[in-house]
Write a structure and sequence with these properties.
The structure is a homodimer.
Chain A (H helix, E strand, L loop, with lengths): L3 H11 L7 H21 L3 H10 L8 E2 L6 E2 L1 H13 L6 E2 L7 H15 L3 H21 L3 H5 L3 H17 L4 H12 L13 H21 L15 H4 L7 H4 L11 E2 L10 H14 L6 E8 L1 H7 L7 H4 L3 H11 L9 H5 L1 H7 L2 E5 L8 E7 L4 E6 L12 H12 L5 H12 L8 H6 L3 H6 L1
Parallel strand pairs in A: 5-6
Antiparallel strand pairs in A: 1-2, 3-4, 5-7, 7-8
């Protein structure tokens, strides 16, 4: 298996848009809608503002838009900043098998390059599909220990995705694409230790930027090892104890990772989602008065307890990883969006009081996308619900309308309703859009544009 | 040991130039002379030209000089390009215990920032000393398996050195320096699989640039984990099976890694050096006519055979890792510099013929910096020499005059004798130089400067 990198490169280079089946193409549009919404929701976060303030003085010409913002930067810095914007809310998509958030590193680099090159929408989508395929296949080849050890897999694999997508847009030949993947391999980095700090989203931004650099260097015949992935001292063996190289190249083109991509209805840890579903459904179905709640009993997969069993979160960020906070917010406020994971909501004494009534226990008989919730009310009444497939899971995916609605809520952060609708229209028109750069440009609110 | 990153940060922040002993200060100047010479010798390599051609279109304002070149770029791109220039010849310094080439990643980032900030020479040297101390201590903490597994240690540790040095120049406080080291940790990358390709020097450039980014972000209070080095999912445990965290912080300020730094007299694998010493000495002492040589017998440390036992190199790059080629070039040409590791010299039939007469064998009784060389001439005469300490080893270091001579030869690539002398004077004057940026600016040949 000494030619994994080259075989993967060949597949990317030889792929035609007509090889990609209609459902995969459609999924690519859905991924863009979700990604762009996340970027608009996150683009005013201080993490974005600080990174921009730190790096702007050193940035190049205004080649690419920053999603949702008035500034324009060189494409490399735009790739970095847009990835931070679209990852910061933890609301981006998830390739469930690998836990990679696939669209952010790829689309963030690609959109900057595509705007600069005025690439058409179909070309943009094709490159996106190939980039996501590349990063997810490399992720599938790695054992769970890669992530468990501390590698931030969206970053370590995302750099390959960005390199592949940008390399496709730059029309690299097979040799150049092999080098691009090699230069990506040697930049692979990112520690999960950074979760909970600003550097978490920087990891993804750095991967997006580094992947774009890899493609740009390779386009000029900057050489690397030609076995960057599979060599004894290549990516697969240095960053992991094992690597199933066959999983990277077997059946390329016959299956597509994008069909296994999930979108979050709530901006929090994905194992919490079935609990939120249950709480919202019980609240609405029985018109529950939160003041009457005596006790909330959650029965969930043991992993949910391990990752998100936190009955006393102190910040919005900690709230995103709290089953108890999420259940309380859902029952008290009737919705669970970005606002419910802000510091203010987590500190709200009414939320804290209800949180204190939530108990959670693990049960290996409950699947990761399942939850059993029981609510005891004053006076002895109780309601109970079992959720077999959380909303947003592969068996109960967000519909196109759900995704559009999510987009509109997030876009509201920077755009009025008309602007959001126009931008959504551009996303849906991507397959035939002559210049994909229109999307990034239109994402800046008109008041900004007038100020430019 | 939960505060390694913070203790290291505190040391860097609290250090005063007056704390650094005179021999260490002097060694810092020697390191600069060696590094700058390497950069001038390497700055016209195609690796540099290609990287520059690929990235220039996206670069920022002309804030910093490229060593030996007419272009000026933003400081981040300058850090990258200058590190490639100064590493490409494999002629840079070596911290022998870790095999880190310490000055390139640190000085290349620092010189760009220092020019932009018009930092004084003493401040520049102080930051350089601290950056080198940081990267070498982290390197010492890692077991040999880190490098053996495939991590390019000059890159994985160099990013910390660049962050520490640039953070010192930016006058970060302890909290910010802790974050800078954390952001460095999460960018640590670089595979030895890239050795032999252009991506090898890119690894070091990427580390220099990433370290500078870490310092710039931290200066704006961009947060990271505060235990980026020592946490269970931090650098030390994710990129290595073991890490001796005590080695990073014990005795800080009492010993200095720079005192263990070595400079190469020849631009090739360091284990070859004693053989070259012996061949040059025998040739000069006995006025050997190469045409009379029947046989050359090398007895060396087994590691030298393992790493550099290559009797038929095909390229200049392979020649750098060939005992046989090096011995033949030394005996035939009487000098072993950059030219002798060019493709032309390796392909030269006269060199190849003599190379064929060289045999080498390993002997565990011969130290790594030692060699026994025997030369048999036509007519039965033979000469023999044992080198106990190769020139450039810690027991037989290059003198200041040797380093100046090395600088002049390398600088000749871009500067005339007057220009080289003037630049060397600036290096030696660094401790009192008001603006350290003069060095980078003066490294551009005057014909370039007129053209600007």
């Amino acid at each position: 298996m000494g030619d994994v990198t080259r075989r993967l490169a060949r597949f990317i280079v030889d792929s035609h848009w007509s090889d990609v089946a209609a459902p995969v193409r459609h999924e690519a549009v859905r991924a863009v809608v979700n990604w762009l919404g996340c970027a608009l929701g996150g683009c005013r976060d201080e993490t974005v503002s600080i990174a921009l303030a730190a790096l702007r003085e050193f940035a190049g010409p205004p080649q690419a838009a920053l999603l949702g913002r008035p500034e324009r930067l060189d494409i490399l810095n735009a790739a970095l900043i847009n990835a931070i914007s679209s990852n910061i809310l933890d609301f981006d998509d998830t390739h469930l098998r690998t836990v990679i958030h696939p669209t952010v590193p790829v689309a963030s680099a690609l959109t900057a390059l595509a705007e600069h090159k005025a690439a058409g929408g179909a070309e943009f989508l094709h490159a996106l599909v190939l980039g996501i395929e590349t990063e997810c296949r490399i992720g599938i080849a790695l054992p769970p220990e890669h992530y468990a050890r501390g590698w931030h897999i969206t970053a370590t694999c995302g750099v390959f995705g960005a390199a592949a997508a940008c390399g496709k847009l730059l029309r690299l030949d097979e040799q150049q694409m092999t080098w691009a993947l090699g230069i990506a391999a040697t930049q692979a980095a990112g520690l999960t230790e950074m979760l909970g700090s600003m550097a978490k989203s920087y990891n993804i931004g750095h991967a997006a930027r580094s992947g774009l650099v890899a493609a740009l260097l390779a386009a000029r015949n900057f050489t690397s090892s030609e076995q960057g992935i599979e060599a004894p001292r290549g990516f697969g063996r240095v960053l992991s104890e094992r690597c199933d190289f066959g999983a990277i190249v077997d059946g390329l083109g016959a299956s597509w990772a994008l069909t296994q991509n999930a979108y979050k209805p709530y901006p929090c840890g994905i194992v919490i989602h079935p609990v939120i579903d249950a709480c919202l459904q019980l609240r609405n179905r029985h018109r529950i008065d939160p003041a009457q709640i005596v006790r909330v009993v959650l029965r969930v997969n043991p992993l949910a307890i391990q990752l998100t069993g936190n009955s006393a979160p102190r910040t919005g960020l900690e709230g995103k990883l709290s089953l108890q906070h999420s259940a309380a917010a859902a029952l008290l406020l009737g919705k669970v969006g970005v606002e419910q994971y802000g510091d203010a909501c987590v500190a709200d004494p009414r939320v804290a009081a209800l949180r204190g009534k939530v108990t959670a226990s693990g049960d290996a008989g409950v699947g990761k996308e399942q939850a059993q919730v029981r609510i005891d009310l004053a006076g002895g009444v109780h309601y109970e619900l079992f959720v077999p497939h959380a909303l947003g899971s592969l068996d109960n995916p967000l519909s196109d309308a759900d995704l559009d609605a999510k987009f509109r809520v997030l876009a509201h952060q920077v755009l009025d309703e008309n602007g959001a609708g126009r931008l959504l229209g551009l996303c849906h028109a991507l397959p035939t859009l002559p210049d994909s750069g229109a999307i990034a440009r239109e994402s800046a609110p008109s008041s900004y544009r007038e100020a430019l």
